Structure formats: structure tokens, C-alpha cells
């Protein structure tokens, strides 16, 4: 498994420090447009839950709620964190809880069923700039990994045609199997670097979620790229992004 650049590769071509040998990409919102589909599924799930369990005066789930409490976190963590913001605590339940069960796992399973249905209906589209960046990183000889809190990481990568670039994948299933803490803890990124045979000191992290940027920063990674898909550039910087871009293509040297 490659762990470094090919001889003669040049850092500025891909906008990273010269000592970076590996890249870890978040999936939803960085490589693919599926973050928007996740937000739709979370909103429907939480709005229906709040209407049934919190009363008609409870405000609906908002875009701010998504970025503050859910985006980038493992599914169950997102359920707990958002509901805690509304003063609601649920029993954990079991991983195979029915989607209608009033448990953390039940609510999470309802959301997952919805997002899979939406993905099936709409398909998965990678961002063209991200595909171009993956191509450039591959040509530069960088090791490439994906670190996502989604349990559907393999399915999304396959549907987007991106699996061919990926040498290591840490997803929601891996996080559960290895008992890793989810983002904003750095555990999943640290595991991704280790699976690539790299160290944080020589690895770049690419994230659009505040929780993910914080995880990259707190994990001591060499370079953290914040991808500003949700008009939160200042928040990305405040959480530890070394640079903020609207699209990964901005990092490529076109000269």
C-alpha cells in the first residue's frame, strides 16, 4: 500500500505542504453531494419525532441544527446531541430497533431508511472538482483514504464511482466495530491514517463539517482543509481549518 509521493512530485500542484504524504477525505459534502440528502432525511425524521413527542409548539429541525448537532457525527451521536439540545433524552435501545421505536437507535434507523430511499431515488453525484482533485492526488502518489461517519460509506463510494481511488475506508460500521469515538473526537481520522501507514504529522484532512474539522485539528494533522458547502467559512476556521475553499478544485495548480 503506497504511503508517500512518487519521486519528483510537487506539493503546490495539489495545494498541500510538501511533507504531506497522505490525504483523508470526508465523504458526504466533500466528495459527494449526499450531505444535502442526509440533511433532508434528518429533517423529516426529527420533525416527525418532535411533532409526536414534543408538542405542536416545538420549533422544527433547522439547517442550523443540522450543522451544529448532527453534521459529521455518527448517527446515534447525532440523535443524542440534537435531542439533548431540545431537552429530550431517549433510551439507547438496540441496533436493530424498529424505526418507529422511541429510542436513540430507533430514531437513527428511521433516518437511515429514509436516506437510503432518497439515494436510491436520486442517485449519488460526486463533485466534479473533488473527482479532479482525487485524480491529481493519485497522480502525485499520495495515499488516499475516506473517513466518514456514515454506515453507508461503501455503497456511496461505489455509486459515485470513487472506490477506485480509496486505499483505506473508515466508516460508521468501522467506528462501531473498533469502538472508536466519533467526530469531533479524532479517533476515526487517526485510524484512517494508521490504515494507510501514515502519521498525522504527514497527513491532510478534508472536511466540510465543523465536527470533522475539529477532529482533524485536535488529532494533530499536518493540514486541515475546510470545504465551505454550508456558508460557514468563519466557523470552519474557528474549529481549526488551515485553509477554507468552496471546492477542492481551487487547490489545484492550473498553470
UniProtKB/TrEMBL annotation:
Keywords: Carbohydrate metabolism, Hydrolase, Isomerase, Magnesium, Metal-binding, Phosphoprotein. The keyword Cytoplasm does not apply. Pfam families: Hydrolase (PF00702). Coiled coil: none annotated. CDD domains: HAD_BPGM-like (cd07505). Transmembrane segments: none annotated. Its EC number is 5.4.2.6. Its cofactor is Mg(2+). It is an enzyme of class 5 (isomerase). It catalyses: beta-D-glucose 1-phosphate = beta-D-glucose 6-phosphate. Belongs to the HAD-like hydrolase superfamily. CbbY/CbbZ/Gph/YieH family. This is Beta-phosphoglucomutase.
Amino acid at each position: 500500500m503506497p504511503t508517500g509521493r512518487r519521486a519528483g512530485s510537487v506539493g503546490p500542484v495539489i495545494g498541500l505542504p510538501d511533507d504531506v504524504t497522505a490525504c483523508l477525505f470526508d465523504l458526504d459534502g466533500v466528495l459527494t453531494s449526499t450531505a444535502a440528502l442526509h440533511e433532508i432525511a434528518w429533517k423529516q425524521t426529527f420533525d416527525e419525532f418532535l411533532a409526536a413527542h414534543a408538542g405542536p409548539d416545538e420549533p422544527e429541525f433547522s439547517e442550523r441544527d443540522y450543522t451544529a448537532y448532527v453534521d459529521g457525527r455518527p448517527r446515534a451521536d447525532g440523535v443524542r446531541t440534537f435531542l439533548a439540545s431540545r431537552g429530550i433524552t431517549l433510551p439507547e435501545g438496540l441496533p436493530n430497533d424498529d424505526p418507529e421505536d422511541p429510542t436513540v437507535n430507533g430514531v437513527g434507523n428511521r433516518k437511515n431508511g429514509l436516506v437510503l430511499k432518497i439515494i436510491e431515488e436520486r442517485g449519488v453525484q460526486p463533485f466534479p472538482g473533488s473527482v479532479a482533485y482525487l485524480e491529481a492526488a493519485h497522480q502525485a502518489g499520495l495515499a488516499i483514504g475516506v473517513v466518514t461517519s456514515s454506515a453507508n460509506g461503501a455503497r456511496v463510494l461505489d455509486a459515485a464511482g470513487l472506490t477506485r481511488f480509496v486505499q483505506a475506508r473508515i466508516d460508521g460500521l468501522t467506528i462501531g466495530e473498533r469502538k472508536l469515538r466519533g467526530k469531533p473526537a479524532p479517533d476515526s481520522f487517526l485510524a484512517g491514517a494508521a490504515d494507510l501507514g501514515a502519521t498525522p504529522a504527514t497527513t491532510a484532512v478534508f472536511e466540510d463539517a465543523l465536527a470533522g474539522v475539529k477532529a482533524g485539528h485536535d488529532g494533530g494533522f499536518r493540514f486541515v482543509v475546510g470545504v465551505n458547502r454550508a456558508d460557514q467559512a468563519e466557523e470552519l476556521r474557528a474549529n481549526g481549518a488551515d485553509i477554507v475553499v468552496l471546492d477542492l478544485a481551487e487547490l489545484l495548480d492550473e498553470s
